[in-house]
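Hypothesis: this fold can be encoded by more than one sequence.
Test: take the structure tokens below, design a sequence, compare later.
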């Protein structure tokens, strides 16, 4: 694996980053009671949503751009190292059961590959070349979006992914937790959620990690809402892959339609368990094939299909 050379000024770079700042007032935190440490930590975490809220216009602009590409068949790809990479993989892996996204529609890339999900892969985060190779393996196109994620905003893997994607014409988003980051500057849409110094100096799995999780939740969830993957706040594209999700499917149909249990079972049976189709058969009084056609004609948007059915 090829890595970038060691930067002699990396230590000075870290010293200028708020995520790496030392907090002398916490220098004796190890001498505090467990409850007091928990109180301090909880107070720190409480500041994260406000930091995210300050960046909502940038997040919304990124979502609208991502949704526009995905409507044309593009993919959403997260790229990061360490905690940032793991959060991207987590968000991507939860899209199929939640929103019934197709295989490879939302992808999480972590520096060092799947092994890096559970262990440290030395040097992987320092390689821009590795990021390019990982993206090339996906045969990236101009309809795709690449979201580079890095608390510091300087991780070569994340920056390399964004730079390579942008050169290919793909949409790029850079999510960092320091102001003036190289990652945000490299991306078309820069999102810098400044969460400040960590409780444990430089441990960006804490506030920075929480902020990244919140922003990734927004990017994927609101994009899926824009793509018609929900009906109101109901997960009508949920994939019923286990008993809990099958029970949730029945409940979603009930909430959307007010139908009784027997009607719901018949509707789900007639639509091969597809929640969105079952709701449409009940609300528009159409059969399964008609529901499928109406939804196909409406790009999967249940509200639009209902309007079409009612003429």
């Amino acid at each position: 694996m090829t890595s970038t050379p060691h930067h002699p000024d990396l230590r000075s770079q870290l010293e200028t980053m708020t995520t790496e700042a030392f907090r002398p007032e916490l220098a004796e935190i190890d001498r505090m009671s467990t409850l007091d440490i928990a109180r301090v930590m909880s107070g720190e975490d409480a500041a994260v949503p406000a930091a995210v809220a300050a960046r909502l216009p940038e997040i919304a602009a990124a979502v609208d751009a991502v949704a526009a590409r995905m409507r044309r068949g593009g993919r959403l790809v997260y790229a990061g190292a360490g905690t940032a990479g793991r959060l991207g993989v987590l968000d991507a892996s939860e899209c199929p059961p939640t929103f019934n996204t197709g295989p490879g529609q939302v992808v999480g890339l972590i520096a060092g590959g799947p092994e890096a999900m559970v262990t440290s892969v030395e040097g992987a985060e320092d390689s821009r070349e590795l990021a390019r190779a990982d993206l090339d393996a996906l045969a990236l196109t101009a309809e795709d979006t690449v979201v580079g994620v890095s608390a510091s905003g300087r991780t070569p893997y994340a920056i390399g992914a964004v730079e390579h994607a942008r050169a290919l014409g793909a949409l790029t988003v850079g999510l960092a937790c320091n102001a003036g980051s190289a990652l945000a500057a490299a991306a078309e849409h820069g999102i810098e959620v400044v969460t400040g110094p960590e409780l444990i100096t430089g441990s960006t799995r804490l506030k920075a990690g929480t902020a990244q999780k919140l922003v990734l939740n927004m990017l994927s969830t609101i994009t899926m809402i824009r793509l018609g993957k929900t009906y109101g706040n109901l997960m009508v594209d949920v994939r019923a892959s286990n008993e809990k999700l099958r029970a949730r499917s029945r409940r979603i149909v009930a909430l959307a339609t007010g139908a009784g249990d027997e009607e719901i079972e018949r509707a789900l049976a007639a639509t091969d368990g597809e929640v969105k189709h079952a709701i449409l058969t009940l609300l528009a009084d159409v059969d399964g094939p008609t529901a499928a056609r109406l939804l196909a004609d409406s790009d999967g948007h249940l509200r639009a299909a209902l309007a079409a059915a009612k003429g």
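Residues 1-6 have pLDDT under 50 and may be disordered. The chain is about 50% helix and 10% strand.
Hypothesis status: open.
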